[in-house]
């Protein structure tokens, strides 16, 4: 989910901008958590709803990390949209064009969630997360931060992603 831009940059040879030694050293010098952080105290909504939305976000990331296409797609609404690097993809385009690349990326590069805020209003939720990545993808060193805005809605009691926007630096 979080890595379409980095995958695109790697494939086009532009990832050096994001893995430049000076920027990498700056990121590595920061005090990042060693494991994913839970939603912060500023999250809005009932504890039960915040936990359920968090579980959906975590399940999507687990599906990517486990290489489980079906589990990842089951968490997406049929009308979901994906925004990244100035581009827009539909559910079908993400499934057919980028899901496999996101899975391959997650299998190779370690990422840590360093911030998460969940807001729930009725059957709608939005989640803001940031992640820190440091590792290698196809033998190319990478160090970058990723910000994600996910919009979810509750459909038949289950939280589904309706839109995801990824931005990295």
Keywords:
single chain; about 170 residues; alpha+beta; Nuclear Transport Factor 2, Chain: A; 5 helices; about 35% helix; globular; disordered N terminus
Tell me what you see in this structure.
It is a single chain. The chain is of the alpha+beta class and 169 residues long. It has a single domain, classed as Nuclear Transport Factor 2, Chain: A (Roll). It is built from five helices and six strands; from the N terminus they run ααααββαββββ. It has helices spanning 4-12, 21-29, 47-66, 69-74, 91-108; strands spanning 76-84, 87-90, 109-121, 124-137, 140-155, 158-168. It has a six-stranded mixed β-sheet with strand order 2-1-6-5-4-3. α3 (47-66) crosses α5 (91-108). The chain is globular, with a radius of gyration of 16 Å. The two termini are 16 Å apart. The model is unreliable at 1-30 (pLDDT under 50).
Would you give the CATH topology? Nuclear Transport Factor 2, Chain: A
- Give me the number of helical elements: 5
**Overall radius of gyration:** 16 Å
- Label the overall shape: globular
Structural class: alpha+beta
Largest beta sheet: strand ordering:
2-1-6-5-4-3
- How many distinct beta strands? 6
User: How would you spell out the order of helices and strands?
Assistant: HHHHEEHEEEE
Question: What's the gist of this structure?
Answer:
The protein has helices at residues 4-12, 21-29, 47-66, 69-74, 91-108; strands at 76-84, 87-90, 109-121, 124-137, 140-155, 158-168. The chain is an alpha+beta fold.
Q: Would you spell out the secondary-structure blueprint of this structure?
A:
Layout: H1 4-12, H2 21-29, H3 47-66, H4 69-74, E1 76-84, E2 87-90, H5 91-108, E3 109-121, E4 124-137, E5 140-155, E6 158-168
Parallel strand pairs: 1-6
Antiparallel strand pairs: 1-2, 3-4, 4-5, 5-6
């Amino acid at each position: 989910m979080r890595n379409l831009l980095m995958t695109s940059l790697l494939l086009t040879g532009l990832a050096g901008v994001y893995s430049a030694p000076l920027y990498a050293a700056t990121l590595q010098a920061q005090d990042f958590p060693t494991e994913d952080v839970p939603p912060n105290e500023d999250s809005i909504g009932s504890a039960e709803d915040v936990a359920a939305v968090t579980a959906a976000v975590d399940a999507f990331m687990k599906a990517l990390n486990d290489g489980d296409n079906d589990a990842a797609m089951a968490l997406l609404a049929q009308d979901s949209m994906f925004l990244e690097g100035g581009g827009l993809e539909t559910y079908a385009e993400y499934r057919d064009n980028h899901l496999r690349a996101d899975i391959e990326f997650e299998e190779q590069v370690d990422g840590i969630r360093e911030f998460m805020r969940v807001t729930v209003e009725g059957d709608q939720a939005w989640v803001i997360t940031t992640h820190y990545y440091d590792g290698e993808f196809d033998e190319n060193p990478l160090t970058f931060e990723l910000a994600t805005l996910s919009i979810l809605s509750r459909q038949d009691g289950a939280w589904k992603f309706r839109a995801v926007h990824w931005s990295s630096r």
